[in-house]
Amino acid sequence: RSIARPLADVAAYLRLSGATGELPEFPERQGGVQEIRDLTQGFNHAARAVRESRERLTRAYVQFVGSLAQALDARDAYTAGHSRRVSDYSCAIAKAMNIPERELETIRVGALLHDLGKIGISDLVLQKPGRLTPEETQLIQQHPVIGKRILENVQGLEEYFGIVELHHENLDGSGYPHGLKGEKTPLPARIVKVADAYDAMTSD
């Protein structure tokens, strides 16, 4: 019992890790076989190191993608600072709505990245001084999907998908890319949509 039961617990935790993709932390054992305690403590140490490395990598990627978003803003004097302002407005709206802190951070970063997909749109379309043709409008409406596709290349950024992909949906279903109605669009994406529209209408 002193060996088989602790090993069964270890196996159960490892099965949980395999099912969820997350590294569980074993509860500290005060008694039992020393080798089992050493095994679980070693696993906990390794799991913490892996989690910290993953978090650092995710932060680094978000910073890198944020730099891409800033580079996108810089392509056109009209959009300079747009992503940062949309992020600030979105956070102000979310705070006024008493959105939980964890979701607020998702909104902050998601708003910074909301126009990421415009990296894949030609400058000839983005900076066209006159009215867009129907074909050009259809092209520009692909940027939310392109943005999500960029984020899909890295594990751990799933929480930003909804904002990046759905920030041009409208309550009446007239938006894009999916024509969602009402609350079918997640609240964070609706918040960023309002902030995005506000900045477009109030900036020079």
List the SSEs and their pairings.
Blueprint: H1 4-20, H2 34-74, H3 82-96, H4 101-112, H5 123-126, H6 134-140, H7 143-151, H8 161-166, H9 187-202
Helix pairs in contact: 3-4, 3-9, 4-9
Descriptive report:
The protein has 204 residues and is mostly helical. 62% of the residues lie in helices and 0% in strands. The protein contains 9 helices and no strands. The radius of gyration is 23 Å and the shape is elongated. The mean pLDDT is 87.
Helicity, as a percent range: 55-70%
What's the number of extended β-strand segments? 0
- Fraction of residues in β-strands: under 5%
Rg, Å, rounded: 23 Å
Q: Using the alpha-carbon principal axes, give the shape.
A: elongated
SSE class: mainly alpha
> What's the N-to-C terminus distance?
74 Å
H-E string: HHHHHHHHH
Quaternary state of the chains: single chain
Main β sheet profile: none
SS field, number of helical segments: 9
Uncertain runs = none
Average pLDDT reading: 87
Short description:
This protein is mainly α. The protein has helices spanning 4-20, 34-74, 82-96, 101-112, 123-126, 134-140, 143-151, 161-166, 187-202.
List keywords for this structure.
elongated; 204 residues; mainly alpha; 9 helices
